[in-house]
Amino acid sequence: MSQHNIEEEIEEIAGGEFERVAVPQSKLKSWKSFLGMYAGEHAAGTEFVIGPLFLTTGVSAFDLIVGLLLGNLLAVLSWRFLTAEIAVKYRLTLYYQLEKICGKNLVTGYNLANGILFCFLAGSMITVSATAVGIPFNMEMPKLTDTMPNGMTWVIIVIFLGAVISLIASKGYETVSKAANWMSPVIVMAFLACGVVALNQLGVNSLSEFWDIWGEGSEPFPGQIKYTFWHVVIWSWFANAAMHVGMSDLSVFRFAKKASSGWTTAAGMYVGHYMAWIAAALLYAVYLKSPEAQAFLSNGEAPTVAPGPLANNAIGVFGILAVVLAGWTTANPTIYRAGLAFQAIVPKLSTFWVTIIAGTLATIAGLFPAFAMKLLGFVALYGFILAPFGAIIVFEHLFHKQAGIVKNYAEVANLKFNKAVFFAWAISFGLFYFISVQFDVFLSFVTLPAWLLCGVLFLVFSKQIQKR
User: Fold this and answer.
1) Of 100, 284, 326, 352, which is least surrounded by CB within 10 A?
2) Domain 33-387+411-417: which CATH number of 3.40.190.10, 1.10.4160.10, 3.30.70.60, 3.50.40.10
């Protein structure tokens, strides 16, 4: 059988997405494919929420602008030198890679948690798009403190958007990538336009006046915590902890020809997590001067953070369109990743159907505004839970020889449940979550210590278990 026929047979077995085999050479993609996807995914719906939320924490100009520069650089380096390097070496999904190390039963629990958390994140992006679609219908916008759906119009719009987004994601990586490539330039232009218009509305004519928008910072809004320079740096580094140090993007970069494709994440970080966050924060700064926002503040409440009206106020219909597309470009690859997580649990189900299931869960989550309105805290928790599992892969890859342990031990020893992995994660998660809660430590501050401890404990426990 020729190599081409073998690859076609593999693809047919894997449902077209190579979920349980290495991606063959003929299916590898150039860096351009990833550039569009990362620019689209990270100049996206979350940015319309996160930018304004930074202002609610009372952050200063220096802390925001310089802190984001450093934090996003650390994120790019994590993708390039950890995720992409390991992805192109093995070319396996995160879920199949973990199964070889953890065993089928243990990784099933991980995949379930991972898939559900991805669905919640995608759901928050459906919420973002809904705030734009609802404008022509005079829909009541969710407040910062809202948890439940606020009306039937909201429910109908969210369900419609969720169905469309799920169908796009169900078509596989190729379609997700093409959608991102098409949408991302429009979204980037919209963010830039929003920032320029907002500066004009704020009467900014010089760098010093721009700096004065945040100045030395302020007291946080009701219900928010105060962010300092290190809050901004560490949070922006670990905003995507599950994807880079948590190794979730092994599933994406396994298609890359070279590990250098990892540098394309800089497009997402500095166009999305820098320019777009600041542009969205400027939109909110304009809104805070409005009588409506001042009325909220005078009553001791945080003003509404609704991306649709904020963008509409700046650039009209183009702003509404940009918010809708921005929600799509985040939700699409997130639902795709969730589908892969669920498929690892039920491999007999096709990629199409597991993605539809993931999209349905995301749509249900999107009905509840709390996931979007509490996005800073949710993203920190999500990374903290999942990132330590990435340390298992990284530490085994880098140190298995020095530690004297067998790689992919669960596969080699036919284990269904690798106790070394479970106890390493449980101890690191439990210890640092307790520290965060008991001593009121910002959760993102303990993500890196938990990740490092999990990796070290995994090596120690693996050594002892494999000896026995």
Assistant:
1) 352
2) 1.10.4160.10
